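cron nightly-structures :: item 1 of 1
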Amino acid sequence: MNGHDDDDRPYPARNGRARLANPITPFRVFVCVSLSLLVGLHVYAYLWGPQEIATSISDVKYFVMQLSREISQVHRKHERLQSEVERVSSALPAVAAAAGRAKEALRPSHANNQHSLVDYDRQMGDYALESAGARVLDTGDTVGHFHYDGPVSWALHELTAWACHECQAARAVIQPGTLPGQCWAFKGERGEVVIRLLATVHVTGLSLEHIPPHIDPTREILSAPRQFQLEGLKSRADASPHDFGIFEYNKNGNPIQYFDVTWQAPQGFNIVRFKVLSNWGHPVYTCVYRVRVHGDLLPGQAPRSLVTIQEEARIDNG
Protein backbone atom coordinates (compact mmCIF):
# COMPACT_ATOMS: atom_id res chain seq x y z
CA MET A 1 0.00 0.00 0.00
CA ASN A 2 2.85 2.38 0.87
CA GLY A 3 4.45 1.57 -2.42
CA HIS A 4 1.26 2.59 -4.17
CA ASP A 5 1.10 5.76 -2.00
CA ASP A 6 4.71 6.55 -2.96
CA ASP A 7 3.84 5.97 -6.62
CA ASP A 8 0.81 8.27 -6.32
CA ARG A 9 2.69 11.23 -4.81
CA PRO A 10 4.63 12.28 -7.92
CA TYR A 11 1.42 12.64 -9.98
CA PRO A 12 0.37 16.02 -8.56
CA ALA A 13 3.91 17.29 -9.17
CA ARG A 14 3.84 16.03 -12.77
CA ASN A 15 0.38 17.56 -13.33
CA GLY A 16 1.66 20.82 -11.86
CA ARG A 17 4.61 20.83 -14.28
CA ALA A 18 2.16 20.14 -17.16
CA ARG A 19 0.05 23.15 -16.16
CA LEU A 20 3.15 25.40 -15.93
CA ALA A 21 4.26 24.25 -19.40
CA ASN A 22 1.19 26.01 -20.88
CA PRO A 23 2.08 29.75 -20.48
CA ILE A 24 -0.33 32.64 -21.15
CA THR A 25 -0.25 33.57 -24.83
CA PRO A 26 0.87 37.07 -25.96
CA PHE A 27 -2.67 37.80 -27.13
CA ARG A 28 -4.00 37.25 -23.60
CA VAL A 29 -1.30 39.53 -22.25
CA PHE A 30 -2.30 42.20 -24.80
CA VAL A 31 -5.98 41.88 -23.85
CA CYS A 32 -5.22 42.14 -20.17
CA VAL A 33 -2.99 45.19 -20.59
CA SER A 34 -5.54 46.89 -22.87
CA LEU A 35 -8.38 46.31 -20.43
CA SER A 36 -6.24 47.62 -17.57
CA LEU A 37 -5.45 50.78 -19.51
CA LEU A 38 -9.09 51.33 -20.42
CA VAL A 39 -10.17 50.92 -16.81
CA GLY A 40 -7.45 53.34 -15.75
CA LEU A 41 -8.55 55.92 -18.33
CA HIS A 42 -12.15 55.70 -17.19
CA VAL A 43 -11.13 56.16 -13.60
CA TYR A 44 -8.93 59.14 -14.52
CA ALA A 45 -11.70 60.71 -16.59
CA TYR A 46 -14.21 60.27 -13.78
CA LEU A 47 -11.97 61.75 -11.07
CA TRP A 48 -9.74 64.40 -12.70
CA GLY A 49 -10.56 65.53 -16.21
CA PRO A 50 -13.30 64.07 -18.40
CA GLN A 51 -12.96 66.87 -21.02
CA GLU A 52 -9.26 66.25 -21.63
CA ILE A 53 -9.81 62.51 -21.88
CA ALA A 54 -12.64 63.03 -24.38
CA THR A 55 -10.37 65.23 -26.46
CA SER A 56 -7.59 62.62 -26.35
CA ILE A 57 -10.03 59.92 -27.33
CA SER A 58 -11.22 62.09 -30.25
CA ASP A 59 -7.63 62.54 -31.40
CA VAL A 60 -7.08 58.83 -31.18
CA LYS A 61 -10.26 58.27 -33.21
CA TYR A 62 -9.08 60.74 -35.90
CA PHE A 63 -5.68 59.02 -36.05
CA VAL A 64 -7.37 55.64 -36.38
CA MET A 65 -9.57 56.97 -39.21
CA GLN A 66 -6.55 58.38 -41.04
CA LEU A 67 -4.71 55.12 -40.61
CA SER A 68 -7.73 53.19 -41.93
CA ARG A 69 -7.90 55.48 -44.96
CA GLU A 70 -4.22 54.95 -45.72
CA ILE A 71 -4.62 51.21 -45.34
CA SER A 72 -7.59 51.29 -47.76
CA GLN A 73 -5.51 53.17 -50.35
CA VAL A 74 -2.67 50.69 -49.99
CA HIS A 75 -5.14 47.84 -50.41
CA ARG A 76 -6.57 49.39 -53.60
CA LYS A 77 -3.05 49.89 -55.01
CA HIS A 78 -2.25 46.29 -54.17
CA GLU A 79 -5.36 45.12 -56.04
CA ARG A 80 -4.46 47.23 -59.10
CA LEU A 81 -0.91 45.92 -59.02
CA GLN A 82 -2.17 42.36 -58.74
CA SER A 83 -4.51 42.86 -61.72
CA GLU A 84 -1.62 44.28 -63.78
CA VAL A 85 0.57 41.31 -62.87
CA GLU A 86 -2.20 38.92 -63.92
CA ARG A 87 -2.69 40.80 -67.21
CA VAL A 88 1.05 40.71 -67.97
CA SER A 89 1.20 37.03 -67.04
CA SER A 90 -1.67 36.23 -69.40
CA ALA A 91 0.08 38.15 -72.21
CA LEU A 92 3.45 36.45 -71.73
CA PRO A 93 2.64 33.35 -73.88
CA ALA A 94 1.55 35.57 -76.80
CA VAL A 95 4.68 37.71 -76.42
CA ALA A 96 6.87 34.61 -76.36
CA ALA A 97 5.16 33.24 -79.47
CA ALA A 98 5.58 36.57 -81.29
CA ALA A 99 9.24 36.68 -80.33
CA GLY A 100 9.71 33.17 -81.68
CA ARG A 101 8.04 34.11 -84.97
CA ALA A 102 10.20 37.23 -85.25
CA LYS A 103 13.31 35.18 -84.61
CA GLU A 104 12.35 32.69 -87.31
CA ALA A 105 11.53 35.52 -89.72
CA LEU A 106 14.92 37.15 -89.16
CA ARG A 107 16.79 33.89 -89.56
CA PRO A 108 17.83 33.37 -93.21
CA SER A 109 16.65 30.07 -94.59
CA HIS A 110 16.04 28.17 -97.79
CA ALA A 111 14.40 24.82 -98.34
CA ASN A 112 15.74 22.29 -95.85
CA ASN A 113 18.98 23.97 -94.71
CA GLN A 114 19.49 27.36 -93.10
CA HIS A 115 21.78 29.49 -95.26
CA SER A 116 21.77 33.13 -96.20
CA LEU A 117 20.85 33.92 -99.80
CA VAL A 118 23.45 36.68 -99.73
CA ASP A 119 26.89 35.28 -100.62
CA TYR A 120 25.41 31.80 -100.85
CA ASP A 121 28.50 30.52 -102.67
CA ARG A 122 30.67 31.55 -99.70
CA GLN A 123 28.71 29.24 -97.41
CA MET A 124 28.46 26.05 -99.49
CA GLY A 125 31.03 24.72 -101.90
CA ASP A 126 29.85 24.22 -105.49
CA TYR A 127 31.69 21.44 -107.33
CA ALA A 128 29.80 22.17 -110.56
CA LEU A 129 31.06 25.75 -110.96
CA GLU A 130 32.66 26.34 -114.35
CA SER A 131 35.14 28.96 -113.13
CA ALA A 132 36.46 26.41 -110.59
CA GLY A 133 37.04 23.70 -113.21
CA ALA A 134 33.69 22.04 -113.98
CA ARG A 135 32.26 21.92 -117.48
CA VAL A 136 29.28 20.80 -119.52
CA LEU A 137 29.86 17.55 -121.45
CA ASP A 138 26.58 16.80 -123.16
CA THR A 139 22.90 17.68 -123.35
CA GLY A 140 21.61 14.42 -124.86
CA ASP A 141 18.61 14.85 -127.11
CA THR A 142 17.60 18.17 -125.54
CA VAL A 143 16.67 20.80 -128.14
CA GLY A 144 17.61 24.32 -127.18
CA HIS A 145 15.14 27.17 -127.37
CA PHE A 146 16.63 30.15 -129.20
CA HIS A 147 15.25 33.54 -130.24
CA TYR A 148 16.46 34.35 -133.71
CA ASP A 149 17.04 38.00 -134.59
CA GLY A 150 17.44 37.16 -138.25
CA PRO A 151 18.70 34.59 -140.77
CA VAL A 152 22.35 35.18 -139.81
CA SER A 153 21.82 34.42 -136.12
CA TRP A 154 19.75 31.35 -137.04
CA ALA A 155 22.55 30.05 -139.30
CA LEU A 156 25.23 30.64 -136.66
CA HIS A 157 23.19 28.83 -134.02
CA GLU A 158 22.53 25.84 -136.28
CA LEU A 159 26.20 25.64 -137.26
CA THR A 160 27.32 25.74 -133.61
CA ALA A 161 24.80 23.08 -132.62
CA TRP A 162 25.94 20.80 -135.46
CA ALA A 163 29.67 21.28 -134.82
CA CYS A 164 29.57 21.07 -131.02
CA HIS A 165 27.23 18.54 -129.44
CA GLU A 166 27.83 19.79 -125.90
CA CYS A 167 25.51 22.80 -126.39
CA GLN A 168 27.20 26.06 -125.49
CA ALA A 169 23.99 27.55 -124.11
CA ALA A 170 23.88 24.88 -121.38
CA ARG A 171 27.02 26.36 -119.84
CA ALA A 172 24.75 28.93 -118.20
CA VAL A 173 23.71 26.35 -115.58
CA ILE A 174 27.24 26.24 -114.12
CA GLN A 175 27.96 29.97 -114.35
CA PRO A 176 27.21 32.54 -111.63
CA GLY A 177 25.12 35.01 -113.65
CA THR A 178 21.41 34.75 -112.85
CA LEU A 179 19.86 37.89 -114.32
CA PRO A 180 16.65 37.52 -116.35
CA GLY A 181 17.54 35.68 -119.55
CA GLN A 182 20.93 34.39 -118.34
CA CYS A 183 19.73 30.79 -118.36
CA TRP A 184 19.71 27.62 -120.40
CA ALA A 185 16.41 27.49 -122.28
CA PHE A 186 15.27 24.32 -124.05
CA LYS A 187 12.09 23.36 -125.83
CA GLY A 188 9.36 21.57 -123.93
CA GLU A 189 9.51 20.57 -120.30
CA ARG A 190 12.03 17.73 -120.40
CA GLY A 191 15.77 18.13 -120.83
CA GLU A 192 19.11 17.00 -119.43
CA VAL A 193 22.68 18.17 -119.09
CA VAL A 194 25.77 16.12 -118.21
CA ILE A 195 28.31 17.97 -116.05
CA ARG A 196 31.87 16.95 -115.27
CA LEU A 197 32.61 18.11 -111.72
CA LEU A 198 35.89 19.77 -110.82
CA ALA A 199 37.00 16.54 -109.06
CA THR A 200 35.65 13.26 -107.70
CA VAL A 201 33.08 14.19 -105.07
CA HIS A 202 30.98 12.34 -102.54
CA VAL A 203 27.71 14.08 -103.43
CA THR A 204 25.46 14.97 -100.50
CA GLY A 205 23.18 17.65 -101.92
CA LEU A 206 22.37 20.02 -104.75
CA SER A 207 20.90 23.50 -105.18
CA LEU A 208 18.70 24.82 -107.96
CA GLU A 209 18.40 28.53 -108.61
CA HIS A 210 15.81 30.49 -110.58
CA ILE A 211 14.94 34.17 -110.71
CA PRO A 212 12.09 35.32 -108.44
CA PRO A 213 8.80 36.34 -110.08
CA HIS A 214 9.09 40.04 -109.14
CA ILE A 215 12.14 40.59 -111.39
CA ASP A 216 10.77 38.61 -114.32
CA PRO A 217 9.26 40.90 -116.99
CA THR A 218 6.10 38.75 -117.06
CA ARG A 219 5.86 38.56 -113.23
CA GLU A 220 5.59 34.78 -113.41
CA ILE A 221 8.06 31.89 -113.66
CA LEU A 222 6.05 29.13 -115.30
CA SER A 223 9.20 28.16 -117.22
CA ALA A 224 10.99 27.22 -113.98
CA PRO A 225 11.76 23.50 -113.51
CA ARG A 226 9.36 21.68 -111.24
CA GLN A 227 10.47 18.06 -110.86
CA PHE A 228 14.09 17.19 -111.58
CA GLN A 229 16.53 14.36 -110.99
CA LEU A 230 20.25 14.01 -110.29
CA GLU A 231 22.29 10.97 -111.34
CA GLY A 232 25.90 9.97 -110.78
CA LEU A 233 27.81 8.59 -113.79
CA LYS A 234 31.03 6.59 -113.93
CA SER A 235 31.44 7.69 -117.55
CA ARG A 236 29.48 9.62 -120.14
CA ALA A 237 28.06 6.34 -121.51
CA ASP A 238 27.23 4.81 -118.12
CA ALA A 239 24.18 2.59 -118.67
CA SER A 240 23.41 2.14 -114.95
CA PRO A 241 23.85 5.51 -113.26
CA HIS A 242 23.33 6.05 -109.54
CA ASP A 243 20.01 7.77 -108.79
CA PHE A 244 20.43 10.47 -106.13
CA GLY A 245 16.68 11.14 -106.10
CA ILE A 246 13.86 13.14 -107.66
CA PHE A 247 13.18 16.59 -106.24
CA GLU A 248 10.71 19.43 -106.70
CA TYR A 249 11.47 23.14 -106.98
CA ASN A 250 8.91 25.42 -105.28
CA LYS A 251 8.23 28.37 -107.57
CA ASN A 252 6.80 30.31 -104.62
CA GLY A 253 9.85 29.67 -102.43
CA ASN A 254 13.27 31.27 -102.25
CA PRO A 255 15.20 31.72 -105.52
CA ILE A 256 17.93 29.33 -104.31
CA GLN A 257 16.63 26.05 -102.91
CA TYR A 258 18.81 23.32 -101.39
CA PHE A 259 18.00 19.60 -101.45
CA ASP A 260 19.68 16.72 -99.62
CA VAL A 261 20.16 13.73 -101.88
CA THR A 262 17.65 10.98 -101.19
CA TRP A 263 20.02 8.07 -101.79
CA GLN A 264 23.69 8.69 -101.11
CA ALA A 265 26.31 6.62 -102.89
CA PRO A 266 29.21 4.91 -101.12
CA GLN A 267 31.57 6.00 -103.88
CA GLY A 268 32.32 9.39 -105.34
CA PHE A 269 31.49 10.69 -108.82
CA ASN A 270 33.13 13.21 -111.08
CA ILE A 271 30.29 13.19 -113.63
CA VAL A 272 26.64 13.90 -112.86
CA ARG A 273 23.53 14.21 -115.01
CA PHE A 274 20.88 16.79 -114.20
CA LYS A 275 17.49 15.92 -115.71
CA VAL A 276 14.43 18.17 -115.80
CA LEU A 277 11.23 16.10 -115.76
CA SER A 278 8.61 18.87 -115.79
CA ASN A 279 8.15 22.61 -115.47
CA TRP A 280 5.53 24.83 -113.81
CA GLY A 281 3.26 25.05 -116.83
CA HIS A 282 5.00 26.94 -119.63
CA PRO A 283 3.81 25.33 -122.88
CA VAL A 284 6.83 26.24 -125.03
CA TYR A 285 10.11 26.05 -123.12
CA THR A 286 11.86 25.55 -119.77
CA CYS A 287 14.63 27.72 -118.27
CA VAL A 288 17.37 26.46 -115.96
CA TYR A 289 19.41 29.25 -114.39
CA ARG A 290 21.96 27.51 -112.19
CA VAL A 291 22.68 24.08 -110.75
CA ARG A 292 25.04 23.62 -107.81
CA VAL A 293 26.41 20.28 -106.63
CA HIS A 294 27.52 19.98 -102.99
CA GLY A 295 29.40 17.32 -101.10
CA ASP A 296 32.86 16.33 -99.89
CA LEU A 297 35.99 16.06 -101.96
CA LEU A 298 37.38 12.55 -101.74
CA PRO A 299 40.78 12.22 -99.99
CA GLY A 300 43.71 12.62 -102.35
CA GLN A 301 41.65 14.47 -104.94
CA ALA A 302 42.73 17.75 -106.44
CA PRO A 303 40.71 19.97 -108.76
CA ARG A 304 41.70 19.63 -112.38
CA SER A 305 43.30 22.55 -114.12
CA LEU A 306 41.74 24.20 -117.15
CA VAL A 307 44.43 22.71 -119.41
CA THR A 308 43.60 19.20 -118.18
CA ILE A 309 39.91 19.87 -118.80
CA GLN A 310 40.60 20.97 -122.36
CA GLU A 311 42.71 17.87 -123.00
CA GLU A 312 39.92 15.65 -121.64
CA ALA A 313 37.47 17.46 -123.90
CA ARG A 314 39.56 16.68 -126.96
CA ILE A 315 39.78 13.03 -125.91
CA ASP A 316 36.02 12.81 -125.30
CA ASN A 317 35.17 14.47 -128.62
CA GLY A 318 37.79 12.47 -130.50
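cron nightly-structures :: done
Residues 1-24, 107-114, 305-311, 313-318 have pLDDT under 50 and may be disordered.
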